[in-house]
Each structure stands twice: as structure tokens, then as C-alpha cells.
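Annotated sample (chain length 138).
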Amino acid sequence: MRFLVRRSSTTTPIFQNPTSTFLSYCSSSSTSSSSNNKLFVGGLSWSVDEKSLKDAFSSYGEVTEVRIVYDRDSGRSRGFGFVEFAKEDDALSAKHAMDGKALLGRPLRLNFALDKVRGGPVVVPRLSNMGNDSSRDT
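Output written by the structure step:
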């Protein structure tokens, strides 16, 4: 039995790289006005308020917005928030200077915030088990 295989005349690959697909959803488009001037701040103490967070970051540049996320039921901080700077360079210098530093007794974890996408598909990359298969045997 013979099978005929026909080559496609286009150069588009049949399978797409899942990483490139993920990056296309996560990257901001050129028409978007957002940039890397908004920081995610994790590891906040419950006693941190917007004023103390703004004071901690204002030495690195002009802070345009500070928002701490609170629990709806208890009204207590959920331990993370966002700090937005007027300039991208100020956000970068604040990230380098404050990442891992303590604020009111707790070390901060800083990353650039991702834009919240509404209505678009959510793509979460699957991480491999990095060769740690020995835990399955027991």
C-alpha cells in the first residue's frame, strides 16, 4: 500500500510553539498605552497602608498610584499591592533596590505587573517536572 504525501505550498508550520503562543497573549500590543512602570509588590505586612507604601517607594521617582488589595470579607490586606511610577526607569530602579528588602519586618517580592486581560483566553504554561520523578515511586 502506498500513501501519497502532499507538501503544503505555504511555509507556515503545522504546529505552533506553545511558548510563542503564550507570549503573544501576555505581551502588550503596540497600541496599548501600558508599559513596565507598574510593580507588583508581594509580601506586604497587614499593617502596611497606601501612605506607608508610597513613602517607601517615592524616593525612587514619582509614584502616580498605589493600591493595596484587601480581602472583601475581613477587610484585611491580602499581602500584596501595586505601585505605579510615572517613568519606566524609576520603576526599574525601585525594583532592583527594594526586591528582597524588608518593609515593616517582612521581605518584599517585586515583579513588573502584568496587564489584566478581560475576555481574552487565559493561557498558563505547563511546567515540566524537571526530572524529579523519584517522588512518584513512593
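Annotation: Confidence is low (pLDDT under 50) at residues 1-34.
Annotation: The beta strands are 38-42, 63-70, 77-85, 102-103, 106-107, 109-112.
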